[in-house]
Amino acid sequence: MNPYVSLLVMGAVALLIAIGGLAMSAIISPNRRNSTKVRNYECGVDPTPANNAHGRFPVKFYLVGMTFIIFDIEVVFLYPWASSFAKLGLFGLVAALIFIALITVPYVLEWRRGGLDWD
């Protein structure tokens, strides 16, 4: 028997479970609409009438959110370095300083551009 057969069977079962779950949720779930479900929601604040009429929020909200996610993920890469700092020696210190410099440059550019302002 080919060793990849078990892998293909496992992939087929996983695909069947995923598609089956989506199909069952579409069949079983109630589709009742009410004003609370259809209304726009942003951070617990009721939308202004201008936003409610158009159904959109300012793009600035999403840009600040994406900027936060990008810089947050970059900083998470420093955790493994911090846990093995003593073993890495001078090479690890130089690599970390280069990484921090590479993070700082776009952060400063974003700050100067005004991307972190809520106005």
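Next protein, fold it too.
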Amino acid sequence: MNAKIVNWNDTYNVELDNFKNFGDPGAEWFGHAIGLKMIKCIQSNCKISQEDSVLDVGCGNALLLTQLAKLGFSNLYGIDYSAPAVKLANSIVKDQNIENITLKEFDFLTDDVKTLPTFSLVLDKGTYDVISMDDDSKEKRNRYKENIVNLLQPNGMFLIVSCNWTQPELNAQFGDVFQVVHTIPTPSYQFGGAVGNTLSATLYQKL
């Protein structure tokens, strides 16, 4: 087990204790606002029904999935390689009396994705960023893309939010297997005369 996995387990063990002791579900990755924008994008730009299957890759505490469940989405899945993260997510889902979210401990890069069902929509909020920071990033990014494609049904949708990759960089990496459907506006900044965005958020459709 590498150091990064151990660190994530440590993080989610702390959040699990905080939830048990104080009812605090923990942080929402990239903040609550981007989660709301993702949900709005799903409702406005994804050609799916509330009964279609949705997967959150690296779901963490599953707060995004619980929000979708409360809006009526009924076929929700979350996977994460961290056992404490899945335990925390299950505790939150149970506490909120949500019955239509399936959570599983699953390593997206090493476990066999053929054991999972296929999906109409796959979500990623930060998982690709974590993979990209690894020493053998290129190989793992290629495996990640292959798995996303294999998990999506024909014409399936892929919504990704990244803090490490710009919009053109994401398009360059995924453009051979996906087409851009919608780009979510994100906060911008200016430095040295150049303008950029703090996050890149894009909805793709499988070619």
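About the second fold: The beta strands are 54-57, 76-80, 101-105, 119-125, 152-162, 178-183, 188-191, 194-197, 200-206.
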